[in-house]
Design brief:
CATH class of the largest domain: Alpha Beta
Number of helices: 14
Number of domains: 2
CATH architecture of the largest domain: 4-Layer Sandwich
Oligomer: single chain
């Protein structure tokens, strides 16, 4: 068997790994590169393999940096099967059309040809088959099992048994404990492990601290009669925030400040979350069964249309605006940032990873001004971060999980991916030292015989 890293190697985004078993060519994820302009340009490069020769694609979860180039793969003659969890399949059906519209708009602005067409997306979607956690797929001499990764709804660790070897792909591992989801499962055994490293060089603050910090930030927003902007990923971060704010309202911690969810995608994805509540953990399920609408509360206003979104501007402060995208890479958050970043009474709160080169990273690191829609916008607002809202496991969790995978000391090698170069190398060194398995941060397009 040979494993080659065509994306996600010393990058957070663009996950794309090719496993050639000799009998089958299997892709694990096919995501967009995001962040810097150079990264975005990579999406237009030809694949380093022949899509028509790919037999299977296995998808770990529905974030765009793991699925965003699938329609391009179809455009270039892939006609095999795509397997993922049932929840991920349903989330993809919402996320991919939204992503296509954004890509087409950006391509038109930049003078690029479209990355793919509506017909490519329409051809791809029927190829996607949903499976359940723990279900064993026998795909012509290759056995595949999806296990709960605890990252977002339907996210999976993928175990593959082929050619006498067992290899596990972590996808993105969840930051646990999670308000909605169960903790990541541990593969029964693995000869080879591919593990993410977005937070491979840092740790999150404690979960209990984040509730205190969020209530303090909201209280300060009310005191200043300001605006709290929260750029939030439409998938999982938004649902967790709604869950938390719903509890704050029920506990009378907040009641006199309007909250706007200004993201059509997040609104549509929240409906998918409600449909698949069986994936939730025991506590969330209990609240639902008790009659609590965990993603809704009286002071929340969802604004799916442009007209409703514009009304937010007429609502006097204080107010909270949750909008996509999570890295300020596009979406309605840009309009709110353009309007409010220059106001010292505004607070912008980051609750997710900001990839290098993204607008969110520039704001987060303290740039004095940014350019939005061609306009230079000074940054005079307060900047806050709550890292424990991240859906990614931190360094301690990643090392602990790898130790559990290697409980029988059978790991031959660990490949550390989906992190910036420094984070990937740091985690690889820690795994080598503390897990007792040879670990490496592969380079882009590097291949390994297993």
């Amino acid at each position: 068997m040979k494993l080659t890293f065509y994306g996600g190697a010393r990058w957070v985004t663009g996950a794309n790994y090719l496993l050639d078993t000799g009998a089958a060519k299997i892709l694990i994820d096919c995501g967009l590169f995001q962040g810097r302009k150079y990264a975005e340009d990579l999406n237009y490069q030809p694949f380093q393999y022949h899509p028509a020769e790919i037999d299977l694609v296995l998808i770990t979860h529905s974030h765009i940096d793991h699925i965003g180039r699938l329609p391009k793969l179809y455009k270039e003659d892939f006609r095999g099967r795509v397997y993922t969890t049932t929840a991920t399949r349903d989330l993809m059906a919402v996320a991919l059309p939204d992503n296509m519209r954004r890509i087409q708009e950006e391509a038109e602005q930049d003078g690029h040809p479209a990355l793919f067409e509506e017909s490519d997306l329409a051809g791809l979607l029927p190829l996607i088959e949903g499976v359940e956690y723990g279900q064993i797929l026998d795909l012509g001499g290759v056995k595949v099992v999806f296990r709960d990764a605890g990252h977002i709804l339907g996210s999976a660790i993928i175990e593959i048994v082929a050619a006498g070897q067992r290899i596990a792909f972590s996808g993105d591992l969840g930051n646990f404990p999670n308000l909605l989801l169960n903790p990541p499962a541990v593969p029964e055994a693995a000869d080879y492990l591919v593990v993410e490293s977005a937070y491979g060089d840092r740790t999150h603050e404690a979960r209990e601290e984040r509730q205190i910090k969020l209530t303090e930030i909201i209280a300060e927003t009310i005191k200043r009669r300001g605006v709290l902007l929260i750029p939030s990923f439409a998938m999982e971060r938004t649902q967790e925030l709604l869950f938390e704010l719903n509890e704050f309202f029920n506990q009378k911690k907040i009641f006199n400040i309007p909250v706007f969810l200004d993201s059509p995608l997040a609104i549509n994805l929240t409906a998918v979350y409600k449909k698949h509540s069986g994936y939730f953990n025991e506590r969330a399920m209990h609240l639902i069964q008790s009659g609590d609408d965990i993603f809704n509360f009286p002071i929340l206003k969802m604004t799916p249309t442009v007209e409703e979104s514009k009304v937010i501007n007429d609502t006097p402060a204080p107010k909270i605006i949750i909008a996509g995208s999570g890295m300020s890479h596009g979406g309605r958050i840009l309009h709110h940032e353009q309007r409010y970043l220059s106001d010292p009474n505004t607070t912008i709160l980051f609750v997710g990873y900001q990839v290098d080169g993204s607008l969110g990273r520039h704001i987060q690191r303290g740039d004095k001004e940014v350019t939005i829609f061609g306009q230079r916008v000074p940054i005079n607002c307060r900047i806050e971060n709550i890292t424990s809202y991240s859906g990614h496991a931190d360094q301690l969790q990643l090392v602990s999980w790898a130790k559990h995978v290697n409980i029988g000391n059978q790991l031959k090698r660990v490949f550390v991916v989906q992190g910036e170069a420094a984070a990937a190398r740091t985690l690889a060194n820690l795994i080598s030292e503390q897990v007792g398995a040879d670990a490496i941060a592969p380079e882009e397009n590097e291949g390994f015989e297993l």
